[in-house]
């Protein structure tokens, strides 16, 4: 974690100067909008649907996600034109599902290199196996010190209910990290900062795979005792995976890693756990996807993680088990019977 003796005034002045926008119309985007406007921020908001835009402006809530959350629309500039939203903002918080990012950003004609890009995506782009931060850096020329990551443990549904939650803001630029953390801090949101933009973003991706594994286990009838062993092995697997990708000093037991894994693996709000639970109960992948009205990021992350690991050969038996079930059609019961013998 970053510590500093520098005066706080620099990031406070920057916070008051910079304009912020959120891209995405889902539950996490809506939760972030709620936080920002409660902090008296004027926010640009890109949503794809003109119908949803008009509904939000008229009724002050998202018709599809966190529907009970009232949004003060006088502080919102909502648009279906991503270029106009991005053009007016200095800080861009991206909360678009990873599977749609490349298609959405293909619409963009505004340069991003002078923007501060903040990923709240928690997934990997399936077309090129890149985490969003790497994509913004390599494909859009955004300097690494202008890229940030927002990570949990934090479910949008609990933000909507204003239950005490924690966010970690990762950025190599300490001033930007503090600035974004201040924007997202409320009476029920506590924020910390980190400089591990790569580790936190990969951890956000991996925890969705392990949540699917936890859901499969539950669907198959395994109890809490086994699932605790599964999560214990999952955090060690995460540590090995991230260490091989990007070596730096980090405490894997911090909330951004272990905490985010636990809440995603156990919470009733976890879409990845719910997806896995259906798979464990016998749903096909297609049937489970149709049953859900939200994206289970872990489905795409599983294939990406396995591909990325083909270079490093890290021991990842849980990722391998989930891949065999989701992409090779292996029977969950048989796969997990073998997996239980590899865990300790």
Descriptive tags:
2 domains, 51% helix, Rossmann fold, globular, N-(1-d-carboxylethyl)-l-norvaline Dehydrogenase, domain 2, disordered N terminus, 8 strands, 344 residues
Describe the structure.
There is one protein chain. An 8-stranded mixed β-sheet has the order 3-2-1-4-5-6-7-8, with helices on both faces. With 344 residues, it is of the alpha/beta class. It is built from 16 helices and 8 strands. It is globular. It folds into 2 domains: 9-195, NAD(P)-binding Rossmann-like Domain (Rossmann fold, 3-Layer(aba) Sandwich), CATH 3.40.50; 199-339, N-(1-d-carboxylethyl)-l-norvaline Dehydrogenase, domain 2 (Orthogonal Bundle).
What layout of secondary structure does this protein have?
Layout: H1 9-17, E1 20-23, H2 27-38, E2 43-46, H3 50-59, E3 76-79, H4 82-88, E4 91-94, H5 101-105, E5 116-119, H6 132-140, E6 147-151, H7 156-160, E7 165-171, H8 174-183, E8 189-194, H9 197-220, H10 224-245, H11 255-266, H12 271-280, H13 285-291, H14 297-312, H15 317-327, H16 332-339
Parallel strand pairs: 1-2, 1-4, 2-3, 4-5, 5-6, 7-8
Antiparallel strand pairs: 6-7
């Amino acid at each position: 974690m970053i510590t500093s003796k520098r005066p706080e005034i620099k990031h406070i002045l920057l916070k008051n100067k910079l304009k912020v926008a959120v891209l995405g119309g889902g539950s996490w985007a809506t939760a972030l909008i709620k936080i920002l406007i409660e902090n008296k921020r004027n926010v640009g908001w890109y949503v794809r649907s003109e119908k949803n835009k008009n509904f939000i402006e008229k009724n002050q809530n998202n018709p599809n996600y966190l529907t009970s959350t009232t949004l003060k629309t006088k502080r919102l500039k909502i648009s279906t034109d991503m270029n106009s939203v991005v053009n007016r903002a200095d800080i861009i918080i991206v909360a678009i599902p990873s599977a749609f990012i490349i298609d959405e950003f293909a619409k963009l004609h505004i340069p991003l290199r002078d923007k501060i890009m903040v990923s709240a995506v928690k997934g990997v782009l399936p077309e090129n196996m890149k985490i969003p931060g790497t994509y913004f850096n390599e494909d859009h020329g955004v300097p690494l010190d202008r890229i940030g990551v927002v990570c949990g443990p934090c479910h949008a549904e609990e933000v909507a209910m204003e239950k005490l939650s924690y966010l970690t803001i990762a950025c190599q630029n300490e001033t930007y990290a503090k600035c974004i953390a201040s924007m997202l801090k409320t009476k029920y949101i506590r924020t910390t900062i980190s400089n591990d933009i790569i580790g936190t973003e990969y951890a956000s991706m991996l925890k969705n795979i392990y949540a699917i594994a936890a859901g499969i286990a539950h669907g198959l009838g395994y109890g809490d005792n086994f699932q605790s062993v599964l999560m214990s092995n999952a955090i060690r697997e995460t540590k090995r995976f991230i260490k091989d990708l990007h070596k730096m000093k980090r405490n894997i037991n911090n909330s951004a890693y272990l905490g985010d894994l636990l809440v995603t693996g156990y919470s009733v709000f976890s879409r990845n756990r719910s997806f896995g639970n259906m798979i464990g109960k016998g749903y096909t992948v297609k049937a489970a996807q149709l049953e859900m009205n939200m994206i289970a990021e872990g489905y795409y992350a599983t294939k990406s993680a396995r591909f990325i690991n083909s270079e490093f050969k890290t021991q990842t038996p849980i990722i391998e088990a989930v891949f065999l079930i989701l992409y090779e059609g292996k029977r969950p019961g048989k796969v997990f019977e073998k997996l239980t013998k590899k865990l300790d």
